[in-house]
Design brief:
D-Maltodextrin-Binding Protein, domain 2, 2 domains, five-stranded mixed beta sheet, three-stranded antiparallel beta sheet, 16 helices, 44% helix, 13% strand
Length: 416
């Protein structure tokens, strides 16, 4: 080969290599970087997102690179970044969707082509993330409180462990058989455990036909007729019927035979943590009264409305909320998946208690989390007010007074 030709050939090869390298670099730099902010930071969940969800997502969408950011459930970090023009593209939010008012993208245009998937979520969960007709988030996990009971305690008390209570009256009847006292008259096992927490009151408030606020979120309603009936019933459980006592211990420690609890108690892992044999834990539908329901609060994915990549962000939301993804995360972490069709897949398909749990979730309701004032209402008025009635034994009329105080406070916030 002539020397000049050799030099020219080598130069051509080098040029091709340079173009190839530059092309790869340009291709890599052309990838969209999507910032995904996690509020759920438990180890198994984060590990699954890092090791399974992100690699699978990037394989499906090779032009998108996910930048994972770990945060917390508070709105402050996101709101500060939003004000500074540096908000992430996708965030996780809990039951305080109203705290993100003005920051979230309306997902209605995206969900039009996603109706089959959307219908797989419990109606109460989608309603909870729909604000003024706009779907603003898609659930990735469900927080609920399902009526849970000890089958062994039922058997020991002469009750059928396969027939849990279905009404308020039956709850009382079972509770009387299940409650235990020591010789001094102190309760050692509650027939049914409840508390002043707004989660616990919600079950009876909903079942009595009420809610904490009106639909337009301008009126406090937790002590209307339904709320008074619910508070009176809970008060009777503590002080008249005497099947409930805040000092008797909780379900986990064997201090209660029945309680509204997270479905995590179905998990076999809880046997080693609590000492309660898994087969001794029963799950029931919520009690029937004027309405049959229980509490449901979704944790959700949302897209920040300042994102430069709305389509890519929606790709992440739908991928992370897909049936395949929520099944994988549910199996790895024990988190209750938000899709009802998981009941067709193990481990949910192999345990009848999950079937009951998802039936209960399908009729569950949410608190007024679309009001930015609800967190303060429950912390400042609901729980302290219930403490006065249930624990301090103040007159039931206190509940009406607390509602009036809450309404005055809310009117001030609304500028009325």
């Amino acid at each position: 080969m002539p020397q000049a030709y050799g030099r020219g050939y080598r130069s051509l090869v080098m040029l091709v290599l340079i173009i190839a390298v530059v092309g790869v670099a340009c291709s890599a730099s052309a990838r969209t970087t999507l910032q995904v902010y996690l509020a759920e930071t438990t180890g198994p969940y984060v590990n699954h997102i890092k090791e399974i969800t992100i690699p699978a997502f990037e394989a499906r969408y090779p032009d998108i690179k996910v930048e994972l950011q770990l945060g917390n459930w508070g709105v402050e970090t996101v709101s500060v970044r939003y004000a500074g023009g540096a908000a992430p593209d996708v965030i996780q939010l809990g039951s305080g969707i109203a705290s993100y008012e003005g920051m979230l993208l309306n997902l209605n245009p995206f969900t039009e082509g996603w109706r089959r998937d959307l219908n797989d979520f419990p109606p109460g969960a989608i309603e909870a993330v729909t604000v003024n007709g706009e779907i603003q988030a898609i659930p990735f996990a469900l927080t609920t409180r399902t009526l849970t009971y000890r089958k062994d305690f039922f058997s020991q008390s002469g009750l059928d462990p396969e027939r849990p209570p279905t009404t308020w009256d039956e709850l009382v009847a079972c509770g009387k058989r299940l409650v235990r006292f020591d010789p001094d008259g102190s309760m050692t096992r509650q027939g049914f455990r409840t508390s002043n927490h707004y989660h616990d009151f919600a079950a009876f408030l909903f079942q009595a036909g009420g809610n904490y606020m009106s639909d337009d979120l301008k009126t406090i309603t937790f002590a209307d007729d339904a709320g008074m009936e619910a508070a009176a019933f809970m008060n009777d459980l503590f002080h008249v019927i005497r099947i409930t006592d805040k000092d008797a211990g909780d379900f986990k420690k064997g201090g209660a035979a029945m309680e509204y609890l997270s479905p995590s108690y179905i998990s076999p892992e809880y046997e080693s943590q609590t000492g309660i044999p898994n087969e001794d834990i029963g799950v029931a539908m919520p009690l029937k009264h004027k309405r049959q329901s229980q509490i449901l609060l979704p944790n959700s994915w949302a897209i920040i409305n300042t994102t430069s990549y709305p389509d890519e962000a929606w790709n992440w939301v739908t991928f992370a909320s897909s049936l395949e993804s929520v099944i994988g995360i549910g199996r790895a972490t024990g988190i209750a998946p938000p899709r009802r069709s998981v009941i067709n897949y193990p481990p949910w398909s192999t345990d009848v208690r999950w079937k009951t749990t998802y039936e209960a979730i399908s009729i569950a309701m949410s608190c007024p989390i679309k009001s930015p004032h609800f967190p303060d209402i429950r912390k400042t008025f609901v729980q302290p007010g219930l403490s006065r009635i249930l624990y301090d034994q103040e007159p039931l009329s206190v509940w009406k007074d607390v509602q009036r105080q809450a309404q005055v406070w809310l009117d001030g916030k609304l500028g009325r």
